[in-house]
Amino acid sequence: MGKKYNVFGIGNALVDIVTEVDEQFLKSHNIEKGLMTLVDEEHQTRVFDAIQNSVSNKQCGGSAANSIIAVSQFGGSSFYSCKVANDELGHFYMKDLIANGVETNLRKEILENGITGKCLVMTTADASRTMNTFLGITSNYSRTEIKEEALKDSQYLYMEGYLVTSDNGLDAMKHAKKVAEENGVKTAITFSDPSMVKYFKEQMQSVVGASVDLLFCNEEEAMLYTGKDNLPEAREQLKHDAKRFVITRGKNGAMIFDGDTFIDIEPYKVQAIDTNGAGDLFAGAFLYGITNGHSFADAGKLASLASSKVVTQFGPRLEWHQAKEILNKLNKVY
Q1: In this model, does residue 279 exceed pLDDT 80?
Q2: Helix (H) or strand (E) run with residue 179 in it
Q3: Can you say whether residue 110 is alpha, beta or left, with left for phi > 0 and alpha for psi between -120 and 50 degrees?
Q4: How far is CA 150 from CA 34, 169, 196, in A?
Q5: 262: burial class by Cβ within 10 Å (0-12, 13-18, 19+)?
Q6: How far apart are CA 13 and CA 20, in angstroms?
Q7: Taken in order 143, 149, 152, 155, is the CA torsion positive or negative?
Q8: Residue-level pLDDT at 313
């Protein structure tokens, strides 16, 4: 019997709220330009109130959510386990996720009171992006949000590295991994951000250490995690913790270890204007590929083309028609 879902994802649920601001706005609100900063509720509410009349885009997001939506856009089946509050943005998040073809644990009647996490994405005229994130209720994400029946009926479990920052999130990752392994579901994880490997290395090792089937990271994360100062040594060391892995290399493409050999994925030359979300999309497109009959090399080509497309526009996601165009382009190769 085939599994119902290609990928079951767990991670933080954040509503991405995109707007354009000027330099003075950032200064007057004491916001550090060009960085992602975790902020408290009071700060974010103040900034949100100041920008809400100029919001250009709003969508459900978070690192793993963007990957899981990509699986769906390319034609795969996916499930996302997350936590939002019983508020306006929580209802928006749930509807947007479902509208993107993703099944979820979220139901109106089970939403708790609280504040849904959100990320204010502020773009200045020089195309620099500044992000203020308030995790809200997703900081309480725990194993109770994991729909085990859906997880057992999936080919892959995909875990977001950002969850290691809280005890309950870390416990949820370990629990999901255990359920997956006991039920023949392959396990995949993304390190999410160099800071996760740098400051939460022990927690990350406690999830990855006993070996995952597939690891996604970039060059910096690979070297931080392994403690090596060059890529050739780092990739050899990674073989001890992951059966297979993908190291994304920005404009230099990607390197894939398929459990046997290393495969170099050529980059597609583009003019990048916004690299936010490129890694998330790469992971989503790659997971779609390997769960839908494509080899690691072909899945890598698909992921490379998809992420090269997303960096030429603002926002971490493709439009549906763009995903179809990318598949059509590569179908000539398959």
Answers
A1: yes
A2: helix 167-182
A3: alpha
A4: 38, 19, 28
A5: exposed
A6: 23
A7: negative
A8: 80
Residue 101 CA: distances (Å) to CA of 115, 144, 155:
24, 23, 17
The CA-CA-CA angle for residues 137, 279, 233, to 5°, reads 115
pLDDT for 259 equals: 95
Q: H-helix or E-strand containing 160?
A: strand 154-160
Task: Tell me how far apart the alpha carbons of residues 221 and 173 are, in angstroms, rounded to a whole number.
Answer: 19
Neighbours of 195 (CB within 10 A): 15
DSSP state of 111: P
Q: Which residue has the higher pLDDT, 165 or 331?
A: 165
For residue 240, the tally of other CB atoms under 10 A from its CB is: 9
Does the predicted model carry a pTM greater than 0.70? yes
Q: Which residue has the tokens 């090269």?
A: 308
Residues 6+ apart with CB under 8 A from 305: 268, 326, 329, 330
pLDDT score at 123: 84
Which CATH superfamily groups domain 5-11+62-106+141-331? Ribokinase (3.40.1190.20)
Answer yes or no: are the C-beta atoms of 159 and 177 closer than 8 Å: yes
Q: Which residues contact 299 (CB under 8 A, 6 or more apart)?
A: 285, 286, 288, 289, 290
d(CA 148, CA 60): 23
Strands 102-104 and 78-81: parallel
Instruction: Decide: 247 and 231 in contact? Cβ < 8 Å.
Output: yes
**CA 115, 92, 121 angle in degrees (round to 5)?**
70
Domain boundaries, the chain: 5-11+62-106+141-331
Give the gyration radius of the chain's Cα atoms: 19
- Rounded CA-CA distance 119/14 in Å is 6
